[in-house]
Write a structure and sequence with these properties.
The protein has no helices and eleven strands.
């Protein structure tokens, strides 16, 4: 079992920046993928950015050039740096991690942190 705890959400003006952090209860080298998703009321949860243990990082088209995902091995965490925030970035942001044991993929979620972009 892996516990994920997000932090760093809040209220920011358009054009501002926020940094989200997700601390894992295990060594993140064990995690095949660490990612950030977001969700707004009435909509499906969508992938924002993913950081595989091996391979290239993935970003949603809507955040490319503005958001950066990174792993912090010293903190066993994955961070999401969000710059030039827009009102449409307002959502609940969730950290997600995956492990693979044999042929089975296990998925873990944090409880979420709210981001509001508004003037």
């Amino acid at each position: 079992q892996v516990q994920l705890v997000e932090s760093g959400g809040g209220l920011v003006q358009p054009g501002g920046s926020l940094r989200l952090s997700c601390a894992a209860s295990t060594n993140i080298f064990r995690l095949n993928v660490m990612a950030w998703y977001r969700q707004t009321p009435g909509k499906q949860r969508e992938l924002v950015a993913a950081h595989p243990r091996v391979g290239s990082r993935i970003y949603a088209d809507s955040v490319k050039g503005r958001f950066t995902i990174s792993r912090d091995t010293a903190k066993n965490a994955v961070d999401l740096q969000m710059n030039n925030l827009k009102p449409e970035d307002t959502a609940d942001y969730y950290c997600e991690a995956e492990t693979v044991v044999g042929t089975t993929t296990y998925q873990y979620w944090g409880q979420g942190t709210q981001v509001t972009v508004s003037s």
